[in-house]
Design goal:
The longest helix is centred in the N-terminal third of the chain and has 18 residues, at about 1-20. Residues about 1-20 have low confidence and may be disordered. Strands 26, 29, 30, 33, 34 and 35 form a six-stranded mixed β-sheet that branches. Helix content is about 0%, strand content about 50%. It contains one helix and 60 strands. The protein is mainly beta. The radius of gyration is 43 Å and the shape is elongated. It folds into six domains: about 1-130, Immunoglobulin-like, CATH 2.60.40; about 145-250, Immunoglobulin-like (Sandwich), CATH 2.60.40; about 255-360, Immunoglobulin-like (Sandwich); about 370-480; about 485-705, no CATH class; about 710-805, Immunoglobulin-like.
């Protein structure tokens, strides 16, 4: 090394002397030794008779140096440790142009007759290949390089950056390419014959740290050293501008993962042999290896034998494979040993034991924020299927047995939790649903495979159908089968004849004497099963007494809210103002929620379930419109609102008339999901005196809460009262309104509420802080039935209750 630096410094001094000082005319020059002749393994290079490079080794390079321009230069090459320029074997006269940049590559053999001829008839004599348009840096952030075909016994070749582009096309020995710009990344370079079909070799080119740089890439050595005096073998090298030469590693292996997905019980555990050697001992069904290095560019034999086999002679199936260097593969062992003993594939695909191979496997995601995967249809008795990430996208379309679904690359999705629905090819018949929690796999890759039998009874009782994911480290994860749904049932049918009902599920009594305006909590219900929901009058004898029946199929992992609504005989009730059917039915929300998915907020969906009510709007007073133009049977998507108290105004569709006013105390329901129902009749007298209109909030636990009616108009006379007081309402009895007076001697947080004779809260007239003064509030009972009611004032430690009578 020190000898090289001494010679380099000598060359620099020589060039400056030749150039004549500061005004010298110079060019830039890099010299590369690529002559593979063993006799030229080390050479001395002379410039105009002076030593330029002493003991210059094969595959070494100088950095770019200043060289005299516009004057003939004699470059002489002598064996290493030569005595003087008189020992030179080859001399080359060159004239460099001022301010230009050159690369001179010493190449070829000293005696062509002693070496293999070039297949294209090119001369292989020792010479200089010169690139007169060299570069020391890239013009941008890419890496730029020129390529020299410098292997004397190699034919015309192409060089391809695998899965990217062709870099070199039809380059024969001695050809230099123009500079090629590529992004600074890692590439696999395939050297092929000129047809692009015969791969000569594959090299690993990691250019990721060379952005903004330039290089001279050169093919070097002999394809067949034995025919070339055992000279150095073929390789690809890159000379950087500073003289550093980097060898691009020859890739001789491929990456391989093996997955056992053959559901035949006779193959529950197998031994796998690779070229007569035991590779996997007692390899279990639904197990996987990590990715391993496997021999490439040669035929390998993969043999499969029963578990605990004695030797490769026991193999039942053998597969000859040739893997591409640098490529990654996943091999799925699949199928059954004797197809005649198993159910045939519905699409006529062969189910014989075989290997399904993906030849473009990934060990990590390209998009590091996502999870990326392929999907194998590996269930031999399953038809063509689709796989949909529910409410997201179709991931697999029309995959038959043996198909491996992927895009140009892997299927890429954000790292999150999904429900996967497997359906027939039409997308209408559901086969099964699975939970896929990918939230912890960002940046990862996986091989997802459908496995087992849809009908084990017809397949020697082999393992049942499932979906699994093999990770690159060999860990196999089962996606849980979602065989239940979540279901809440709400009784909102205001028909007095349905005040209490019995609900049957597939003939069995599910809910006994289920009352109007009550609800179940969310329960587990069978999924992907034909369900019959029957409704009978309360105290029914059996399912034979059902009045209405509703077939249903629930999806696994879904959440449903089923609302019984309407009347049994629409002709006996007021018609709906918008012409909507009021017949008894089920309103079903198949996007139900049990909790809010917005932290700290309340989420609710609103159902218009009042048969004789017109189309309405709902406003959160002084906040926002919540519902727009909702007619009977309409329901909103979930609305997310801060968990505070609201006043709700229900108006006609044009917002010209306030029909009802309610308070919604949502401060008690942070992180909750609610169903809010318009319930009952606007005009009970026209509807068999059924329950009057109300807003009902239903919690996930099944608690049905009537929202308090806002019925008061408040007036205040400021001043200091002598004491707390609550006066008797006037008039009393009343119809439909009355006035309630009270006094506060000091500012206080108060509530004034109305209760019926059972103690049920009917309305909140006031809730909040009030200053000292005398107050009057008008209570409107237009929507209440005749009877005795109580009103109660709470102000600090003061509490008073009085009775009043409504007579209509």
């Amino acid at each position: 090394m020190m000898k090289f630096f001494r010679s380099f410094m000598f060359a620099m001094i020589s060039l400056m002397l030749i150039g004549g000082g500061a005004a010298a005319q110079t060019a830039r020059l890099q010299v590369i030794h690529n002559a593979a002749d063993p006799a030229a393994a080390v050479v001395d290079v002379y410039l105009n008779g002076g030593i330029l490079l002493d003991d210059f080794a094969f595959r070494a390079a100088t950095g770019f140096i200043d060289a005299p321009a516009n004057t003939p230069l004699n470059i002489g090459v002598a064996p290493g440790n030569s005595g003087s320029a008189a020992d030179t074997l080859k001399n080359f006269v060159v004239t460099l142009a001022e301010n230009e940049t050159y690369i001179a590559v010493a190449n070829g053999v000293l005696d062509p007759n002693s070496f293999a001829a070039n297949p294209d008839g090119r001369s292989t004599a020792f010479t200089l290949f010169v690139n007169p348009a060299a570069r020391e840096t890239s013009s941008g952030s890419d890496v730029e390089f020129t390529v020299l075909h410098g292997a004397s016994d190699a034919p015309t070749v192409d060089v391809n950056a695998r899965n990217v582009t062709t870099l070199v096309n039809d380059a024969a020995y001695g050809d230099f390419t123009e500079y090629i710009p590529v992004p600074a990344g890692a590439y696999l370079l395939d050297v092929t014959d000129a047809t692009g079909t015969v791969r000569v070799a594959t090299f690993d080119a990691d250019l990721s740290g060379l952005g903004g740089g330039a290089a001279a890439v050169f093919a070097s050595g002999f394809l067949n050293p034995a025919q070339n005096q055992n000279g150095e073998s073929f390789g690809i090298f890159a000379a950087l501008a500073n003289g550093l030469v980097v060898e691009l590693p020859l890739v001789t292996t491929a990456r391989l993962q093996v997955i056992h997905n053959a559901a035949d019980p006779a193959a529950a555990s197998v031994d796998v042999y690779l070229n007569d050697g035991l590779l996997l001992d007692n390899f279990a069904f639904r197990a996987a290896t990590p990715f391993i290095d496997a021999p490439a560019s040669e035929v390998i034999n993969v043999g499969v034998a029963a578990g605990n086999s004695g030797s490769v002679a026991d193999t039942l199936k053998n597969f000859a494979l040739t893997l591409t260097p640098g490529e990654s593969y996943i091999a799925f062992a699949n199928g059954v040993l004797d197809p005649n003993s198993f159910a045939a594939n519905p699409d006529g695909r062969s189910t014989a034991f075989t290997l399904f191979i993906d030849a473009m496997a990934q060990e990590a995601a390209i998009n590091t924020a996502n999870v990326e995967f392929i999907v194998l249809h590996g269930a031999s008795d399953a038809p063509t299927v689709d796989v949909t990430a529910r409410d997201v996208a179709t991931l697999v379309d029309d995959a038959a047995y043996g198909d491996i679904a992927r895009g140009q690359d892997y299927i890429s999705v954000p790292a999150a939790s999904y429900i996967l629905d497997v359906t027939d090819a039409t997308g209408t018949v559901y086969v099964a649903s699975f939970g896929a929690d990918l939230s912890g796999l960002a940046g990862g890759a996986a091989a997802v495979f459908a496995s087992g039998f849809l009908n084990p009874a017809q397949n020697q009782n082999g393992e049942g159908f499932g979906i699994f994911a093999a990770l690159p480290d060999g860990n196999v994860v089962e996606f849980p089968l979602l065989d239940t749904a979540r279901l809440q049932v709400i009784h909102n049918a205001a028909d007095p004849a349905a005040a209490a009902v019995d609900v049957y599920l597939n003939g069995g009594l599910l809910l006994d004497d289920f009352a109007f305006r009550t609800a179940t909590p969310f329960i587990d219900a069978p999924a992907l099963t034909e369900l019959n929901i029957g409704v009978a009058a309360g105290n029914s004898g059996s399912v034979a007494d059902t009045l209405k029946n509703f077939p249903a199929v629930l999806l696994g992992g879904a959440t449903y809210v089923a609302i019984a609504n309407g009347v049994l005989d629409p002709n006996s009730f007021a018609a709906n103002p918008d012409g909507r059917s009021t017949a008894f039915t089920l309103f079903i929300n198949d996007r139900g929620r049990e909790v809010s998915d917005a932290s700290g907020e309340t989420q609710l969906f609103v159902v218009h379930g009042a048969t004789d009510a017109p189309t309405v709007d709902v406003y959160a007073r002084d906040v926002a419109q919540l519902v727009n133009n909702a007619a009977y049977s309409d329901f909103t998507p979930y609305l997310s609102v801060p968990a505070i108290n609201y006043t709700l105004d229900i108006t006609d569709a044009g917002n010209t008339t306030k029909i009802f006013k309610y308070t919604a105390p949502l401060s008690a329901f942070p992180d909750s999901a609610l169903t809010v129902l318009a319930s009952g009749f606007v005009d009970p007298s026209a509807n068999q005196n059924g329950e009057a209109f109300a807003l009902i909030a239903v919690t996930a636990s099944g608690n049905a809460i009537p929202l308090p009616v806002v019925t008061g108009i408040e007036t205040v006379e400021p001043g200091v009262a002598k004491s707390y007081s609550l006066e008797q309402n006037y008039p009393n009895p009343f119809n439909p309104s009355t006035t309630i007076a009270f006094a506060l001697p000091e500012s206080q947080k108060i509530s004034l509420k109305i209760f019926d004779i059972t103690g049920k809260e009917i309305a909140i007239l006031i809730s909040g802080d009030r200053p000292a003064g005398s107050y009057q509030i008008t209570f409107d009972a237009s929507n209440l039935a005749s009877g005795i009611y109580f009103y109660q004032l709470n102000a600090g430690s003061f509490s008073a209750t009085k009775r009043m009578m409504l007579i209509k």
